[in-house]
Amino acid sequence: MTSPTQELDAPALRRLAPYLVGSTRRGVVGGSRYAVKLRAALAQAAQDPARRPVLISGEPGLEKDNLAALVHFGSGDRRHVLIRVDTSLLRADGGDLFHGSPSQGPPLLECLGQGCVLLDRFDAAPPELRALLIELARTGQWPGCSEPFQGRLLFTAESSVPELEGLCDQIRVPPLRVRRQDLGDWIRYSLRRRARQLGWPKPPQVPANVVKRLQSHDFPNNLRELDVVINRALLQAKASAVHGELPDLLPEDVFWLLSRPTSLRFDIWGWKPRLREWMRAPLLWNGLLFGLVSWLFVLVNGALWLGPQDRAHNGALNLFWAWWWPVILVTFPLVGRLWCSFCPFMVWGEISQKLARLLGWQPRRWPRGDTDRWAAPVLAAGFGAVLLWEELANLEDTAWLSSCLLLVITGGAVVCSLLFEKRFWCRYLCPVGGMNGLMAKLSVLELRAEAGTCSGSCSSYACFKGGPAEGEGLATGGCPLGTHPAHLEDNRNCVLCLTCVQACPHRSVKLRLRPPAADLQKGMAVPFGERLLLLVLLGGVALHHWQGWLGWLPWAPESLQAGPLLPRFGVALIALLLPVLVAGWWQKPLLYGLLPLVWALLLSRYLPLGMVEAGQLLPVSAFPWQGAAAALWPSWSADQHVVAFCQSAVIAVGLIWSLVILRRLLLTSPRLLGLGSTLAIALALGGRWLTGMA
Q1: Which of 58, 66, 65 lies closest to 25 in space, CA to CA?
Q2: What is the pTM of this model?
């Protein structure tokens, strides 16, 4: 076998040496149809007996020069040399490519013989040079040489080159964002390749949820950006290894992505720096959680069990249904999931966890993997069960059953707190927390960390894992939901507890105002099962107004609170599940575009309780002890016409908001946009009609 170096004399080799390409870096990884098609196109170009020129085009970062090398080294010309010339750096006359000099030697094309030249970044070359290279591709001639070019031409470009059409074979390289199926293979391949160079005894694995998160990223710089992400993940995992033991499974927090560009954000703490110091004070949160909320929860449950059992005489029941529930719904677009940060259910979960640790019990580490795969359906089913229980047992007007609901949710929080560290229940299984996380996407408030600061300056990840005090960072147990603030793609897993702000020594975490529903964007990450929860929430509205659209059934009961259980349960289940059965096939953007309207319908369902009965809290609370004197307590109640107006206004706001979001998500699909807008209008009109009948 003759080597390329034996075909050229020593002066020619010295002339070509700075431009030589010795081998390919890697092949085409992946099994998607895009990868298969690309491999076939490269193989066909390599086996072309006519040695026609080839143009390989695609976005930046796709390693088009390596693909060109695959064509050369996969062909019969692989014994000849391959040189790479960046045409964007050449002079307009071609420089060393076409012309020699006494100091440098003869032209590169003359030294190349039958070898192959890769003309990289052809679209960035000077126009005069492009014309000369096109003539070279057409005739094989170049200025100053009478002999035709015997070698082969390979071009790369980031955009189409109309002048080369018909002169060469064209291969278009698909970007990484349309080859998401291949991403897992690319990551595993890159980990094997890079880990060996960094001294890993065996390549580490990457969690499935990390691959899923990376698949939701667009990778503007394609493979170049992916290589940077993987290299940085390995370096940071190695730097933070405990006792020098390299992990077999890379943690989620070492994978840093370029944040999606955001606009119209207002940094609240940049405007009022002192507000940050006040809000991150542990004394504020500990006093609120363990000094107030925990004991208020005990008092409320005691009053629900020991006091009168109807809402007209029990202040605790009034506080629960006429205050707490409507206020949570009203504030979702303002503060998102803030209520979860001082949730009484999880306060007692944390108290139980602390007591168990004192007694020697050690909860298991936060579980890794795609827990949402099984937890999301369980959460949706749990919320559906709560809605059925609420309607069938008349929880709104039965104090001890309302307390049972609170205690059941608290029991789940306590059990999960004993099994796992942090707030596993809040993130994955709490029915109220699941609804809060979904509705938090509508909020104008967000807590985010600067990924560049975190990846470049931090190696402790105290905001995520917890740890001792560092700099101005305080000692904490880390994010209670097991989420790094720089990895947040929406508000679902952020309860605004500010633990990350307390722990961060670099002031990376920002509290910002943003446009409403900024999380609902085209290409957003959609957690598994979250659509099911959205449909169950819509089913809850249908369940409450069941008589308006199911009352015609011959076996429909007069009420869901009285009579034989089976007919009542059957009608309630149909009302709850019909939105799931009808809309379960709808596309994700269409469903998420209806989220503001679902919020409005839920709020309009509870508005009468808040506007009519919330103002009766004082006389209702005083009645059991002061008798007729309770009437002397101040009270307030809205007129029914005012309530009806507010319900209409809320539904109108939700409809307009949904139409705006649908346009944002479906602008490129006019048919779906028209369908979604029609459904939103029909749902709003139907919801208002049913609300008026209630």
Answers
A1: 66
A2: 0.79
